[in-house]
Automatic annotation (TrEMBL):
Annotated source species: Kosakonia oryzendophytica
Domain 2Fe-2S ferredoxin-type: 3-85
GO MF entries: 2 iron, 2 sulfur cluster binding
Phylogenetic placement of the source organism: Bacteria, Pseudomonadati, Pseudomonadota, Gammaproteobacteria, Enterobacterales
Pfam families assigned to the protein according to its UniProt record, in alphabetical order: Fer2 (PF00111)
Protein's recorded name: Ferredoxin
Superkingdom, natural source: Bacteria
Record NCBIfam families: PRK10713.1 (NF007985)
Length: 85
């Protein structure tokens, strides 16, 4: 399965493929710079707003996130999504 991730601020589109274990890895594979520290969901550095669509959580985030926010390090796109980045 392949999902299209649209980056709201630039309009850039990135494909998230089955071989990408997380949204963060998919973004990095297309040279999108994402701030992160832990890659495990506990620091919250990669936090961003999910504008449209849904994600599947690979692991429950340990960092506090507000409604409408995701941590790309511990989720995958569930179909096409748009994020504020």
């Amino acid at each position: 399965m392949m999902s299209r991730i649209t980056l709201r601020l630039s309009g850039t589109q990135v494909l998230c493929r089955d071989e990408h274990p997380s949204l963060l890895v998919a973004l990095e594979s297309q040279q999108v710079e994402v701030e992160y520290q832990c890659r495990e969901g506990y620091c919250g550095s990669c936090r961003c707003r999910l504008v449209a669509g849904q994600v599947d959580w690979i692991a429950e985030p340990l960092a506090f996130i507000n409604d409408g926010e995701i941590l790309p390090c511990c989720c995958r796109a569930k179909g096409d999504i748009e994020i504020e980045m």
